[in-house]
Write a structure and sequence with these properties.
The protein is 73% helix and 0% strand. It is mainly α. 38% of the residues are buried.
Length: 377
Amino acid sequence: MLVLLACGLIELALLHLNRASSPLPCFLPLPLLAAVTASSGGLLALAWVALKVGALSYGGGFVIIPLMQTDAVAHYHWMTSGQFLNAVALGQVTPGPVVQTVAVVGYAAAGLAGGLLAASIAFAPSNPEWFWLAFVVMLHVGSALGLLAYYWRDWVAIITAWFRTLRTRRVETPNERLAWLIIVASIPTGILGLLLEHRVRVALAKPMAAAIFLIVNGAMLLSAERLRRRAERRRVPAGSRIAGAHDQRRLDTLTYREAAAIGVAQSTALIAGMSRDGVCMTAGLVRGLDHEDSARYAFLLATPIILAAGLFKLPDLTGPLGAGIRVQALGAAACAAVADVISVAFLVRYFKTRTLVPFGIYCSLFGLAMVIYLAVR
């Protein structure tokens, strides 16, 4: 309410300075507002209207409709009363009715640019924990479902093997050992995620920090390839129940201590710019796995963690933050699942014969470009 009161006082001051001018957006400094009042166009007035709509309608507020009608019809003459009622009716049949209505008003005022401007500004005054976080929840769930779809046979075998170990109290087959390796690696990731996720997001979820850590991620991937060539190949310990060691270390020969260390490394993905799969593959390569097994373990590890993170944040989508975007979020989850299946299928084939070097170069160069851009803009 204080924000709206301040906006109203600015509007009254500007109208007093120049009665022929249109009110301008309150987020511009007052001297600048006074300087550009005489030349203000439809987009500036539209931005002001959309800002008021967003500030008053957070959480769903149809009380804003009469105020919007006064601005659009009586004040700025962007549309007739009948056209405005049609815009309101159109908004009722789409998710996010208030924002959809202001988008139609914006389109009537200034075309496509006006519609996009009005819709984006109407979202701006929302709570910092805004709808985007709820939207990302479904992207996580969609990604996890895509991984489950691609590896469904593996997961059926792994889960069956895990229940068998509970019955026999022994770990004998590769799938039985892999099941416990996934569990052991997931425990530290889950604990650290619960303890640090909010703090890390608040501290480091910033463009410059993400760009810097993207460079770090690229350097890590490049270093992994170098360390892999130097790492001693570890063979299956003598007397192991799992026989048949090859020159290249197999996934099921990892120790539980190594799996826990990979799980701790995976938690660095809480930092924007760090790749969860890249970190896990790096840790696997350093422990002597080949690229194919490192990628498979990374994707299998990511599935329960991403799915659990999505389900943990699901109340954001079902609560007020998800109001008006649930249909879009479901569509985005479906797209994320399909994209995940396609990308994982490609990467599984890619890592049979290729390395992380192109990804390391890309991350380093793009991160450096973003650091330069953010520093000089």
